[in-house]
Design goal:
MgTranspt_CorA/ZnTranspt_ZntB; Methane Monooxygenase Hydroxylase, Chain G, domain 1; Magnesium and cobalt transport protein CorA; membrane; alpha+beta; about 55% helix; transport; transmembrane helix; Beta Polymerase, domain 2; 7-stranded mixed β-sheet
């Protein structure tokens, strides 16, 4: 009966002439290097198989330091050179859902094998598998370093596609000029900022990995492919930095527009207040309950007071016009 580790592990072995793809078996497939000019790609989903990991390390005479590395599920981004092998840890984004999550990935790479261990189920490597199965391109002519290049390139391409899909910057400016600064809108802006920074952090991690891979010196491992990875990541990070600057400028513009609208409202209210304050003052004087207010007995006192109010109003408006307050 297959163990849980075997149910969550697949093995692909290929050469230029042939390949096989099947569920992994500890009894039959535990040897990573076949010594027959074929490339072995083992993919494990899950990090909680320390007994099986130990068995794999021992049966392949790998450095037992790998077990300490496997036990750390928050290792981040590292490239460690071992004897004739390479260990790579990379923290990547899971982009299957709108809410981005991260997962830890480990790679143990030799000249003729890659053992890929992912924290969570699912990946975006099916197109690589199809190229192997259908013998497209030169992948079946190359060694494991080329397969690693394809895997890392796929992660970057997935970042680019998902970033363009869910981080939409084009309509932010129009919306900023039309929407009110409601809590819902500001929450959406903060979500966009957090999402962009998640992509930026993940991209920087991949760039660090690519830079370190260019410098490794492991027998049978070619580093020439990884300059292309670095260039692709640099392109993505440049786009992200540009979008961050654009978002910040649009947020500033948004608040500037809202501030201008508020100033216009306050100016209008102030103008009305200044006009009506003297009118209220005059009305207040003649609304007092003193007996000896001579103007109250004038025959035309009411009309005189209205005329005076009109003159004060027109005088205030003329002054505001000359000062170009409206």
């Amino acid at each position: 009966m297959a163990t849980d580790f075997e149910n969550n592990t697949w093995v692909i072995n290929y050469s230029f002439d042939n390949y096989y793809n099947k569920k992994f078996s500890l009894d039959d497939d535990s040897t990573l290097s076949k010594k027959d000019k074929t490339i072995t790609w083992i993919n494990t989903y899950g990090l909680d198989y320390m007994d099986e990991f130990r068995s794999m390390v021992i049966s392949n005479e790998l450095d037992d330091f790998l077990l300490r590395l496997f036990a750390n599920q928050n290792l981040g981004n590292k490239v460690i050179e071992l004897e004739e092998q390479l260990f790579i840890a990379v923290r990547i984004l899971k982009t299957e859902n709108h809410n981005l999550e991260s997962e830890q990935m480990f790679f143990v790479v030799g000249k003729d094998f890659i053992w890929c261990i992912q924290e969570k189920w699912g990946d975006h490597f099916d197109w690589i598998r199809n190229r192997i199965f259908e013998n497209k391109g030169i992948i079946r002519k190359k060694r494991a370093d080329y397969l690693l290049y394809f895997i890392l390139e796929t992660i970057i391409s997935n970042y680019k596609e998902k970033y363009e899909e869910i981080v939409l910057m084009e309509n932010m400016l129009d919306r900023a000029t039309q929407l009110e600064p409601t809590p819902e809108f500001m929450f959406e802006v903060e979500q966009n900022k957090a999402m962009i920074h998640q992509f930026k952090k993940a991209s920087h991690g991949l760039r660090d990995i690519a830079v370190r891979l260019e410098r490794v010196e492991v027998k049978g491992f070619h580093t020439k492919y990884f300059s292309e990875i670095r260039e692709q990541v640099n392109g993505l990070t440049n786009d992200i930095d540009s979008d961050i600057q654009e978002l910040e400028s649009q947020i500033n513009l948004f608040f500037s527009i809202q501030g201008h609208r508020l100033n216009e409202v306050m100016k209008t209210l102030t103008i009305f207040s200044v006009i009506f304050i003297p009118l209220t003052f005059m009305a207040g004087i003649y609304g007092m309950n003193f007996e000896n207010i001579p103007e109250l007995k004038w025959h035309y006192g009411y009309f005189i007071l209205l005329g005076l109010m009109l003159v004060v109003t027109l005088f205030s408006i003329i002054i505001f016009k000359r000062k170009k307050w409206f």
